[in-house]
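Quick illustration, no need to memorize.
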Amino acid sequence: METLDAQLDTLIIKLKNSDNFVDDLENVKSVYPFNRYEYIISALLSEKVLTYDDYLDLRNQYIDRNLFLYVFEISAPRGFGDTWAFSHLLSVEPDLKRPNRKIEASYKGEYDLYLPRPDGSGIIRIEVKASRAVNRDKADEPLYVKALASDAKTRFLMNFQQLKPSCCDVFLWVAVYRDCVKYWVLKNNVIPKHPAFTPQHRNASTSGRAADYDKNSIYEGQIMITDENIKTIEKYAVEGRQLNKAIINQFLAK
């Protein structure tokens, strides 16, 4: 939004009586679908400060920068994780499959997706975790306001929760930005070794443990990825079209 505001500000000063127009903006009432931006663009088009082709270019640039902004408007955690994230992954990599008891008789929802093992001996159990990249300095704002672009230079936070290394072979992490989606594929034994891996549900016992307690004993934990530690997972970053290969490689990794 900051980019769009800056673009419009450079055009507004070209309007006749631009100072009065800026003052008027303070009193513009917004009722869907009419809002402040519609008011500005209409004025710019009316005075031919903005041509129709320029408007289309402005619009397309904004859409490209905010292609996944709608995902930040999904309020229910399950709507985001269980619905959007799974649907997105299955569209990116159709070979990923949903597990069931026909595939594994003892399956009780411990993991989310699977791929056949390369040697045909069984399946690779995959736990999917999704998060949205948000501005750490706007904690009290709605998600769509906190949403960050992938090239943002501000402090950010992504929280990957309910990580259960003993229940899967490979983790597939999905991070949504305003303009793109990023992926990381990690073998299950990588998680307990990560310095930010902590118990998901703290209690008197877990909060009092020494700093060097055995993280392999954590059944369910979380990792908060920020601007300060994102380099710790850089080597696990994967392009969408390489998910299949990356999952197999991580499964086979020692």
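Helices lie at 2-12, 18-25, 36-46, 52-65, 77-92, 143-146, 204-207, 243-252.
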